[in-house]
Amino acid sequence: MTRIILVLSIVVAGIALATVSYYEFIKDDNNAPIAIIEYSPVEPREKEPVNFSGSQSSDPDQGDTITGYYWDWGDGKTDSTNEITIQHIYEYWGDFIVNLTVKDNRGLQSSLTEMHIYVRPQDTHVDFDGHVNGGQGTGQGIFVAKKAVSLTVNYTLTATTVIPPEVTLELKNANDDVIRREGNVGPGSGQWVFDETDLTSTGQYQFTITGEEGGMDFEIDLDVHY
Fold first, then answer.
1. For a 10 Å CB count at each end of the chain, is N or C smaller?
2. Reported pTM
3. Cis peptide bond upstream of 33, omega within 30
């Protein structure tokens, strides 16, 4: 608050007859600053630095400046700094709510500003090697998180018996639905590629190989890209 004092003196023929004082209180205009969050890259990954900035934050009062930035990363960690930019590393993938509060040079804080971000997992690779005979089967799981871009299966099959071997290959999603199944597959190499339209369920996907007849060695690579 600012106090204004007006003093009025009444003087007649050089003689002060009265003095009147007038007080008026005027409220200072100190508006709260406004916090704005920016970050890059747009699709950050776990275990990699994410660049955050409060540079677009502002204070509506002329002459006031922002002197403090208080970050809550949504993963149980926080930071306080007077720097406009800061880096943070998420140790695991998932959805996070980032909160920013800023403070101006007169100590007034902004209201809380929040932003939802999704941190993608690292790409996943699984090697799956072994041997099957007719009537035998085995499988390998691989986890697929949401917003996966692709899942690729590369396989090499090698005969180990005189009888021409054949196998059945199959991939199921996290809901146990068959995405692709191919029987009577003989020795050789091949590739299956699935895009985001095939990877709509989140969880453990299962690739299986089942021997139909003869014996077969197999080398299979499973790769999920985000």
1. N
2. 0.75
3. no
- Between the two ends of the chain, the Cα-to-Cα distance in Å is 56
Assigned CATH class of 124-225: mainly beta
- For residue 8, which phi and psi values (nearest 5 degrees)? -120, 120
pLDDT tens for residues 94-147? 999 999 999 999 999 999 899 999 999 999 999 999 999 999 999 999 999 999
Q: Domain-by-domain residue ranges, the chain?
A: 38-119, 124-225
Q: Which amino acid is at 150?
A: S
Report the pLDDT value the prediction gives residue 91, as an integer from 0 to 100.
Answer: 97
Matching residue, tokens 């916090």 = 35
pLDDT at 17 over 90: no
- Which CATH number applies to 38-119: 3.40.367.20, 2.60.40.10, 2.102.10.10, 3.90.1150.10? 2.60.40.10
Q: State which amino acid sits at residue 194.
A: F
